[in-house]
Amino acid sequence: MPTARIASNHFSLVRRLAGALALAGAMATVHAGAADLLDTVKARGTLKIATEGTYPPFNFKDKSGQLTGYDVDVARLLAAKMGLKAEFIASEWSGILAGLAGNKYDVIVAQVGVNPKREQAFDFSEPYIYSVPQLIVRQDATASYATLADLKGKRLGVGQGSLYEQQARAVPGIDVKSYAAAPDTLSDLAIGRIDAALNDSLMAAYLLKTSKLPIKAGAHVGQVERMAIPFQKGNPQFKAALNQALAAARADGSLKAVSLKWFGTDVSTAP
After folding, report:
1. What fold is seen in the domain 37-128+226-263?
2. Among 271, 193, 156, which Cα is nearest to 225's?
3. Contact criterion met (CB below 8 Å) for 66 and 121
4. Which fold is adopted by the domain 133-220?
5. Which of 8, 28, 194, 199 has its CA 20 to 30 A from that of 249?
């Protein structure tokens, strides 16, 4: 290759490298100088909160069209403790995380589970609710099912297409019956068509609280999942303030009161 072309290519490479370094430096400067989210929400006076609004008992609209549910009450509680007004923005679950990445709102309060992949993209508050797979049995049940393996040879009701159906079918010997709706599962359980049902402990607590059927909570049979509040990374002051509000709500009993209102048990502490 001619010397002139080598020199030209080298100069072009240096220019591109210098340009990339300058851009990286500019971006770092912008990020370093960007206001913490706490400053933004304090100046605005509101906390923009994304939720689905279609997922009872967590977030949904009541008969009068008002947004309500466990997540909604928790969001309002924490916003108030931060000296802010809660401003809710409805979002379908399929795009709710993308909306947060696009700065359409400040936080999401909608049963967002904490996992390593999400933690790479967002920062999270401390958990405000915990969940675990749980069995539901009849009030007069004499058999004790401590694990799914104990249900070999028994009939287990699960939600059609749910993770719990997959979990149950992975255990050989269980006669798995799938249902389109949880109330149908519980009805069959109450009359003895199945021996137990498997659902999320949060949904189980709500169903047991609102149902008049002769059923009761059974054993936890899986790993605990933590639900928390995600927000954009790089906002340490906001994270501290949010966690402080959450700690205050735990300390004064107001977070527990919200749990009891919706579930009849405290779901804000790890089982």
Report:
1. D-Maltodextrin-Binding Protein; domain 2 (3.40.190)
2. 271
3. no
4. D-Maltodextrin-Binding Protein; domain 2 (3.40.190)
5. 199
Of 50, 46, 118, nearest to 90 by C-alpha is 50
pLDDT of residue 8: 36
Q: Locate 190 and state its tokens.
A: 């109450």
Is the alpha carbon torsion for 254, 96, 209, 220 positive or negative?
negative
What element of type H or E holds 20?
helix 3-33
Domain ranges of the chain: 1-32, 37-128+226-263, 133-220
pLDDT single digits (tens) 76-135: 999 999 999 999 999 998 899 999 999 999 999 999 999 999 999 999 999 999 999 999
Q: 197 and 136 in contact (C-beta within 8 Å)?
A: yes
Same fold flag, 37-128+226-263 and 133-220: yes
What's 161's DSSP letter?
Answer: T
Please report which confidence band the pLDDT of residue 182 belongs to, taking 50, 70 and 90 as the band edges.
Answer: confident
Tokens matching residue 164: 């719990």
Q: How confident is residue 137, by pLDDT bands cut at 50, 70 and 90?
A: very high
The dihedral sign for the CA sequence 220, 229, 72, 82: positive
DSSP 8-state assignment for residue 159: E
Query: Please, what is the Cα angle at 149 between 143 and 152, to 5 degrees?
Result: 70
User: Which residues, listed in sequence order, are joined to residue 230 by a DSSP beta bridge?
Assistant: 124
Which helix (H) or strand (E) segment holds residue 54: the answer is strand 54-55
Q: State the residue for tokens 């994270």.
A: 239
Token pair belonging to 137 = 């049995």
**Strand 225-228 to 112-113 pairing:** antiparallel
